[in-house]
Amino acid sequence: MRAKTHYSRTPLHETATEGSIDIAEILIERGANVRAQSDDGRTPLHEAAVRGHRRFTGLLIERGAYLAIRSGRGWTPLHEALYQRSPELAAFLIVSGSDVNAKIEGDFYPEYTALHFAASRGRNKLVELLIEKGARVNVKDRSGKTPLDLATTNEIREALIQGGAKGQN
């Protein structure tokens, strides 16, 4: 269960891509590492998040996957879920304890937080959930933009302002 492809992807990485719970359970029972990172720093949790596999994500978290682990491009599984437009999975990761204030550490969407993604993509309910879970509403990305600057709906602007956001938009 420690075998890897030429990109250091494990069988569990490949299974996460497909979302097969039954196979994942067998692999984990036989010693597959739920925290294994590929050459690009991605874990099975990143793979499941990219594809919106909620049940698979839950299994990995239950078996000890790190919510805060970053890929080689500096993204957490929560960033991946938000980028891939998987609001249900993003909400699951948030309530499971993901760091809602983690900033992207790479050059693709540099210093974006989950709130930047949710505000810029019109995800009203996620914005409200993030604020409820302690997301900093005045945080700036590398270009100096706040979630309020990126808000796409009046409802999001109102939620951010009620949450303490300052500035004009």
UniProtKB/TrEMBL annotation:
Name of the protein in question: Uncharacterized protein
SMART domains with a match to the protein in the record: ANK
Presence of keyword Cytoplasm: no
Q: Which InterPro entries match?
A: Ankyrin_rpt, Ankyrin_rpt-contain_sf
Query: Which keywords, in A-to-Z order, does the entry hold?
Result: ANK repeat, Repeat
Keyword Repeat recorded: yes
